[in-house]
C-alpha cells in the first residue's frame, strides 16, 4: 500500500469531509482547481489481469429466461460454479443463481408482467468461502475504531433494484441469511414497464457477492409499452456491463482487503469478455445496465473513421422516458439503466464498437492526470450485409407521459443531506465514505449506518432531498422502494472552512434522466435535488451504489412512517 503523502485532491477531500480547523488555509475547491489537481491515487492502479484477454472472439451471450416452477413462481438457488468468461485461459470459479437448469453467470432473466405478482424462493446453497481470496478482517474499522458490521462469508440476500416492494421482501442489507436457509418473497409488479435487476445486498459483503456473480436482469413489461411497436424477442437485448480482472489461474482478481473502488481491466458484457454480437440491419432495443462495482461508463457507438451513431434513448431506471432522447453519448453510473433504440439498417456490413471514455474514479470533469485509464472498448456489433427488413422499431414521440409530475411545491419536507469521504490523516488514503445530514452552520454531520435513522418521511407524502456532494467524485445515490424525479443541480457555495453557505443557479436535469429514476448521479461540489413520493410504509435503505462505498459505510436507513 502506498505511503505517499496525500495529494492536493486528497487534502481537499479530507478538509471537506472532516472540516478540520487545520485545513482552513485550503480554499474551497473551484471546478478548475479540482481538474488541475486531480492526482492519481496509486492504490487504484493495481488490478491488471495476469493474462492477455482476447477481444472480439466471444459471441455475446443472452442471459437465459428464468424457468418457472409454476406460473410466475421461481426457485432460484445461490450456488458455486465455474464460468467461461472467454478470457483465453482457465475457467473461473464464480457464484451463480440457478433456476434448476445448468447455472450460468449472470443469473437468469426474470420476465414479469404488470399486475401479475412474481413469487420467488431464494435458496442459499453457497459455501462459506468466496471464490476469490478475502481476508476475514476485510473492512477498515469504523469512526470510533469499532469493527464495521459485515455478514459472515456465504451469507446473502437478494434485492430487486428499482422494485416497488414491501420492506420484508426488499432484500435490504440486514436481511441476509446463511447457507442452508431460504427466503420466500413476492414482487407485486405494480409499477411501469422497466428494466430492473436483482443482485446481492448482504451487509458489508455486497461488493464481494456481486463481484462473485450474484446479479441478474428483471424485465417488467406492461400493455402500454406493448402498444409502442418497440423491437421484441431476439431484437430486445439486455446488455449488463461489468469490469473484471483475472489471475493467471482464471480466478477473479479482487483486493483481499477493502479498497475505495474496484476497476477491472476486462470489459465483461453479459458474462463474456470483450464480446461481439452479429445483428441484422434493422432496429434493436438495447437495455444497458451498469452492473459494475464502481466503474462509470460514458458510452458511444462508434464507426471506424465515421464518428458516432446517434442513440435513441427511450428509457431510464424506472421505465420509458416522456420523450425520446437522441444522444451520441450515454453516461451510466453503477446501478443505472438506459434503454436505447439503435437502427442498424444504415450500417450493413459494418462493425460498430461500443466505446467508453469515463475516467476512473469518475469526477465528471476532464481527468488528464489522474485515475486509471478507462476501458475504451466494450463490445462490437457486426451488422450483417443482408437486405434491411421492413421491421418495426421506430418509437413514437411522445413515448410515455409521466404518471405524476412532481413539483417542489408538493414537498412537505426538504432535507439537506451530505455525501462525504473520510481520509486517514496519516496516509491520506480513504478510510470510508459516509452519508450524513447538514448542520445548521453548513458543516457536514457524518452518520454511520448504525446511527439512529434521520430520514423518516410520512407515507404518501412528497419530499425534496438535496444531495450535497462534499467529495471530488460523482456518487450514484440509490433509494430503495421508490422511483423519483430529478429536479435540478446547483453549485454549492462555501465559506473558507468549507461550510455550505448557499447555492448557485439551478441547472435543469439531463434529458437522459427526465423519466422515473431510482439512482441519481450526485456530482462533486453540487447539490442534486430529487423529488420523491414515499408511497409505502416500512424500513428501507438509501445508499451510494458504488459497491465499495456502500459496504463502508455510505448507506443509511430510510424509515417510511405510517
Ligand atoms: Cu459513493
From TrEMBL:
UniProt cross-references to PANTHER family, sorted A to Z: BILIRUBIN OXIDASE, CUPREDOXIN SUPERFAMILY PROTEIN
InterPro entries: Cu-oxidase-like_N, Cu-oxidase_C, Cu-oxidase_fam, Cupredoxin
Molecular function GO labels: copper ion binding; oxidoreductase activity
Domain Plastocyanin-like intervals: 158-223, 453-560
Annotated stretches, region: Disordered: 164-186
Entry keyword set: Plasmid, Signal
Organism: Deinococcus ficus
Annotated protein name in UniProt: Copper oxidase
Signal peptide: 1-32
Lineage top rank: taxon: Bacteria
Gene3D superfamilies in the record: Cupredoxins - blue copper proteins
Pfam families named among the record's database cross-references: Cu-oxidase_2 (PF07731), Cu-oxidase_3 (PF07732)
Amino acid at each position: 500500500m502506498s505511503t505517499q503523502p496525500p495529494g492536493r485532491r486528497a487534502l481537499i477531500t479530507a478538509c471537506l469531509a472532516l472540516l478540520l480547523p487545520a485545513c482552513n488555509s485550503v480554499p474551497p475547491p473551484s471546478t478548475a482547481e479540482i481538474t488541475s489537481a486531480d492526482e492519481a491515487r496509486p492504490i487504484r492502479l493495481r488490478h491488471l489481469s495476469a493474462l492477455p484477454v482476447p477481444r472480439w472472439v466471444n459471441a455475446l451471450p443472452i442471459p437465459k429466461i428464468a424457468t418457472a416452477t409454476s406460473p410466475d413462481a421461481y426457485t432460484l438457488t445461490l450456488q458455486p460454479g465455474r464460468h467461461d468468461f472467454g478470457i483465453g485461459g482457465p475457467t473461473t470459479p464464480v457464484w451463480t443463481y440457478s433456476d434448476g437448469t445448468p447455472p450460468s453467470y449472470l443469473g437468469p432473466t426474470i420476465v414479469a408482467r404488470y399486475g401479475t405478482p412474481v413469487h420467488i424462493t431464494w435458496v442459499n446453497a453457497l459455501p462459506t468461502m468466496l471464490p476469490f481470496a478475502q481476508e476475514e478482517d476485510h473492512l477498515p474499522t469504523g469512526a470510533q475504531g469499532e469493527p464495521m458490521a459485515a455478514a459472515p462469508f456465504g451469507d446473502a440476500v437478494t434485492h430487486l433494484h428499482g422494485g416497488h416492494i414491501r420492506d420484508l421482501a426488499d432484500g435490504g442489507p440486514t436481511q441476509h441469511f446463511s447457507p442452508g436457509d431460504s427466503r420466500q418473497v413476492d414482487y407485486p409488479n405494480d409499477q411501469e414497464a422497466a428494466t430492473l435487476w436483482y443482485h446481492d445486498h448482504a451487509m458489508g459483503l455486497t461488493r464481494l457477492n456481486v463481484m462473485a456473480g450474484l446479479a441478474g436482469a428483471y424485465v417488467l413489461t406492461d400493455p402500454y409499452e406493448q402498444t409502442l411497436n418497440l423491437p421484441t424477442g431476439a431484437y430486445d437485448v439486455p446488455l449488463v456491463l461489468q469490469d473484471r480482472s483475472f489471475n493467471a489461474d482464471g480466478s477473479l482478481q479482487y483486493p483481499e482487503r477493502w479498497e475505495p473502488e474496484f476497476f477491472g481491466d476486462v470489459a465483461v458484457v453479459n458474462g463474456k469478455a470483450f464480446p461481439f454480437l452479429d445483428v441484422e440491419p434493422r432496429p434493436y432495443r438495447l437495455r444497458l445496465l451498469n452492473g459494475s462495482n464502481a466503474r462509470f461508463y460514458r458510452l458511444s457507438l462508434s464507426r471506424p473513421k465515421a464518428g458516432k451513431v446517434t442513440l435513441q434513448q427511450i428509457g431510464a431506471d424506472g421505465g420509458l422516458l416522456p420523450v425520446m432522447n437522441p444522444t451520441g453519448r450515454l453516461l451510466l453510473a453503477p446501478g443505472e439503466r438506459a434503454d436505447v433504440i439503435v437502427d442498424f439498417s444504415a450500417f450493413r456490413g459494418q462493425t460498430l464498437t461500443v466505446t467508453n471514455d469515463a475516467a476512473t474514479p469518475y469526477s465528471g470533469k476532464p481527468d488528464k492526470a489522474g485515475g486509471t485509464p478507462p476501458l475504451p472498448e466494450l463490445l462490437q456489433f457486426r451488422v450483417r450485409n443482408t437486405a434491411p427488413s421492413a421491421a418495426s422499431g421506430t418509437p413514437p414521440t411522445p413515448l410515455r407521459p409521466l404518471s405524476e409530475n412532481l413539483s417542489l411545491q408538493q414537498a412537505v419536507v426538504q432535507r439537506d443531506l451530505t455525501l462525504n469521504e473520510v481520509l486517514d490523516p496519516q496516509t491520506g488514503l480513504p478510510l470510508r465514505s459516509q452519508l450524513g445530514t447538514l448542520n445548521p452552520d453548513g458543516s457536514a454531520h457524518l452518520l454511520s449506518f448504525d446511527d439512529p435513522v434521520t430520514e423518516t418521511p410520512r407515507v404518501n407524502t412528497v419530499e425534496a432531498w438535496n444531495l450535497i456532494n462534499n467529495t471530488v467524485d460523482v456518487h450514484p445515490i440509490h433509494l430503495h422502494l421508490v422511483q423519483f424525479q430529478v429536479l435540478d443541480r446547483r453549485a454549492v457555495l462555501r465559506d473558507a472552512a468549507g461550510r455550505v453557505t448557499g447555492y448557485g443557479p439551478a441547472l435543469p436535469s439531463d434529458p437522459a434522466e427526465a423519466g422515473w429514476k431510482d439512482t441519481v448521479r450526485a456530482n462533486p461540489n453540487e447539490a442534486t435535488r430529487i423529488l420523491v413520493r414515499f408511497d409505502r410504509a416500512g424500513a428501507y435503505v438509501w445508499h451510494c451504489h458504488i459497491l465499495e462505498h456502500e459496504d463502508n459505510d455510505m448507506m443509511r436507513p430510510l424509515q417510511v412512517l405510517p
